[in-house]
Design goal:
single chain; globular; mainly alpha; 263 residues
């Protein structure tokens, strides 16, 4: 378990630093609001979310994977397959679960109250991929625990999935420019920044599209894929139309957001 934490932290800070430098060298959009304030808020949420999870959940997905193997729970623990095939199948299955979870976060009002905090960021950069309410994080881990018990993935698959998910979330929220040809081919295999940026548009039909964080296939298969924003990537507005005042998006107000106002 200690090795898992070291691996995850190493990838977290490594990808964060890499994309942050890329954003300076080749930004996709001009920033419209204070980067210092946004980074403080988004990275503070990482600390808060981590603390809440550590003190509220006695078991995490990797631990559940070990328990599922010992108890014989889950589909993959009931079949005989090469280990590498189980890892691949498990990572793909877990990614589908996250896609379905993301759709539910948008369309169930009680869950949208939590998730809309993620969409209140008025600019999009590498730190936006970590802007989640702690209650949403706890619910997300609860869903992962149930998925791991049902799927029965190897513990290695869960570690790989968690590392890749966090890395791609920071990558595809990045304010980075990719050549159009590379983006067009890359988004066949992974969610690119241009693909995910559409999801953060203030236009509701664009907000409710491109739900994938890692693999782009589910959006195409389920009809939620939208290739480009109507106003283009430099002309589109980021965020939610009812939360455009940065003075009302302080850390404390964001933490209180699920409990106030209408959805």
């Amino acid at each position: 378990m200690q090795e898992e934490q070291i691996i995850r932290l190493s990838f977290f800070f490594g990808v964060l630093a890499f994309v942050a430098v890329w954003e300076v060298i080749a930004p996709r959009r001009a920033l419209t609001h204070s980067k210092t304030r946004r980074w403080f808020t988004n990275l503070s949420l990482v600390v808060i979310d981590t603390a809440v999870v550590r003190f509220s959940l006695p078991l995490l997905p990797v631990g559940m994977a070990y328990m599922a193997r010992e108890q014989g729970w889950g589909i993959l623990n009931m079949v005989v397959l090469p280990a590498w095939i189980k890892v691949v199948l498990a990572v793909v299955a877990l990614d589908l679960v996250i896609y379905i979870q993301h759709v539910l976060l948008h369309f169930l009002p009680i869950l949208w109250r939590l998730h809309r905090m993620h969409h209140t960021d008025l600019d999009l950069d590498v730190t936006s991929g970590n802007r989640f309410h702690p209650i949403e994080i706890v619910i997300s881990i609860g869903i992962k625990l149930m998925a791991v018990a049902l799927i029965g993935p190897p513990a290695l698959a869960v570690v790989v999935f968690e590392v890749v998910l966090n890395a791609t979330a920071q990558f595809n929220h990045g304010n980075i420019r990719l050549p159009e040809t590379i983006d067009r081919w890359l988004r066949l295999f992974v969610v690119t920044p241009d693909m995910h940026r559409v999801h953060h548009s203030v236009v509701p039909r664009e907000t409710n599209s491109n739900f994938g964080f890692n693999l782009p296939w589910w959006d195409r298969l389920c009809g939620t894929y939208r290739p480009q924003p109507e106003l283009g990537h430099t002309g589109m507005n980021i965020g939610l139309k009812e939360f455009q005042d940065p003075a009302k998006l302080s850390l404390l107000r964001l933490l209180m957001l699920p409990f106030v106002g209408r959805t």
